[in-house]
Amino acid sequence: MITRHLRLAIAVALSLASSAGLAIEFRSVATPAILYDTPSDKGRKLSIILAGTPVEVVVALDKWVKVRDPAGALSWIDRQLLAERRTLLVTVAQTPVRQQADESSSPVFTTVKDAVLDFAEPPENGWVKVRHRDGASGYLRVNEVWGL
Fold it and tell me: Which residues contact 145 (CB under 8 A, 6 or more apart)?
């Protein structure tokens, strides 16, 4: 009985360790694009995704990329319609973007749910630096955005 539990614990630990090493790739949509159910423009059109929207790359083929959108839906997009530029989507109703990565820091501006901001610097200590398209930049908590 103990051996079985030990094996199960080791299997769980190894699966967590291996998944922690997997890098998640995010990109943004370069121009408004049609999302398809198959990797072909002959596939069923599912929806249109707005320019700037962050997506998670799940599978990459030569011409097509399977992506997960902020709502969690999986679909295919033409690779040429993805930008290298990273963006983040605000997930909370309203939040201040702070001057420093600190809760007591002064707000630079306030942002709202579904706003798209540029990813400026990698997250550190639970904060990520973002930039508004008008040039203002500051810090948000990592749990207030999607696309990391």
Answer: 88, 89, 90, 91, 117, 128, 130
Contact 130, 118 (CB under 8 A): yes
- Domains parsed from the chain with CATH numbers: 23-83 (2.30.30.40), 87-146 (2.30.30.40)
What does the block give as tokens for 25? 């790739």
Q: pLDDT by residue (tens digit) across 90-102?
A: 999 999 999 999 9
pLDDT in tens, 7-41: 544 444 444 443 344 668 999 999 999 999 999 99
Residue matched to tokens 């001057």: 99
